[in-house]
Design brief:
binds alpha-L-sorbopyranose; six-stranded parallel sheet; Rossmann fold; 2 domains; alpha/beta
Length: about 400
């Protein structure tokens, strides 16, 4: 039977553009899908860069103006992989044009924009998805199942951290992720957004929080005019004396109280030497605990107080069996998966939503709920006090 086509128009071709291209290219190899993504058009402002990405990643065509992508009749889904400051404009225009919208995280650079995006996709009755790719790690699905099926009991604590070290060198250049106007915030929106989404998903909504932050390195060399590499890897300009101001935090932390009575501790930083992509958490409940660390993403640790006393202890569950959601599509048991596969799983979820005529998960509501926490963190830092997290429905 011939498959139905889902034509994708993707804006952005850097790190996330590469990840999403990898996903569209590989998804039908692993998933039986009624709808098949077609890599129609990739868009970026720099002609040479987007042309090269188009050829390398395997897109049919390229464009240099995102509005052209949105206006095309042969585009069904607009996939936004551009920096946060562009999301609201692109997503609202895409929804108005009747396109389904897939946006990278954080959904926007502030809560007002996130709400605008949510309203736009709801009004247009189009499908919407936000790129919290870690939800598709099989160990995260297992954590959700263990919590839902009562293995952890009532949750008392969520302790989450997301740590990296790629800007610990003060000579690392002033890239867009360090510019508040473009990125919205530092590790808060870039990293803690993932932790917050996982905590929303696994534990529930946060009621109130108190936060603090620090910028260790306030000025950095401007990047080389001709930027080499993509994503996080760029070179400083030859002239290390030309500096610019860092306008985002380097590290952020907050304490949280959940609506269901649980307590949370969150920490995110890009100044943790040796921590490359340390997205990790521990949840402690009345019946047991679970522990996850992305650097060992194929495992989930479980401690059950209901095991016989003589056998109690943390067990490491290898999450690669056919019974494990998001692992079942891949390899035989024990043949582990990696970071790229999370994006393939995400693309499969997007396609399945069309087959099942529902919205994909996580969606703009999840994105806006995360944004409400990000906003509360910024508010708490500015006012140096506990603040309530605005509700988003
Ligand atoms: C860079 O810090 C980054 O690529 C984030 O933007 C991603 O969301 C995160 O998953 C990995 O690190």
């Amino acid at each position: 039977m011939s498959k139905k086509k889902l034509n994708i128009g993707m804006i952005g071709y850097s790190f996330m553009g590469k990840a999403h291209s990898f996903a569209y290219k590989n998804v039908t190899t692993f998933y039986e899908l009624e709808y098949e993504p077609v890599m129609k058009v990739i868009c970026g402002r720099k002609k040479a860069g987007v042309k090269a990405a188009c050829e390398r990643y395997g897109w049919e065509e390229y464009a240099t103006d995102w509005r052209d992508v949105i206006e095309r009749d042969d585009v069904d889904v607009v996939d936004i992989c551009a920096p946060g400051d562009t999301h609201v404009l692109m997503a609202v225009a895409a929804a108005k044009a009747g396109k389904h919208v897939f946006s990278e995280k954080p959904l926007a650079n502030n809560l007002a924009d996130a709400r605008t995006m949510l309203t736009a996709v709801r009004r247009a009755a189009v499908k919407h998805m936000v790129g919290f790719n870690y939800r598709t790690v099989p160990a995260i699905s297992l954590a959700k199942r263990l919590i839902d099926e009562g293995f952890v009991g009532d949750v008392y604590h969520f302790r989450g951290r997301y740590l990296q070290d790629w800007i610990v060198d003060p000579d690392f250049p002033l890239v867009w992720r360090l510019d508040k106007k473009v990125a919205g915030s530092g590790p808060l929106g870039d990293l803690a957004a993932h932790t917050i989404d996982l905590s929303n998903y696994l534990v529930g909504e946060i009621d109130e929080l108190v936060a603090d932050e620090k910028t260790f390195c306030k000025s950095r060399p401007l990047p080389a005019r001709k930027v080499k590499g993509t994503g996080l890897a760029v070179e400083a300009g030859d002239e290390k004396t030309r500096h610019g101001r860092v306008t985002v935090e380097d590290a952020v932390m907050f304490l949280a109280r959940y609506r269901n009575g649980a307590l949370g501790v969150f920490e995110s930083s890009r100044f943790c030497a040796g921590r490359k992509n340390n997205n990790a958490f521990e949840i402690n409940g009345s019946k047991g605990s679970i522990v996850f660390d992305f650097e060992e993403m194929n495992y989930l640790q479980l401690y059950s107080r209901e095991d016989p006393e003589f056998a109690q202890g943390f067990r490491k569950i290898l999450v690669t069996e056919g019974c494990h959601k998001f692992a079942e599509a891949w390899w035989p048991p024990g043949h582990i998966i990696g970071y790229g596969e999370t994006f393939v799983n995400e693309a499969a979820e997007l396609c399945k939503a069309f087959e099942e005529d529902r919205n994909p998960t996580p969606d703009f509501l999840d994105g806006a709920r995360c944004q409400a926490v990000l906003e509360a963190v910024a508010d708490s830092i500015a006012r140096k006090t506990w603040v309530k997290v605005p509700r988003v429905r």
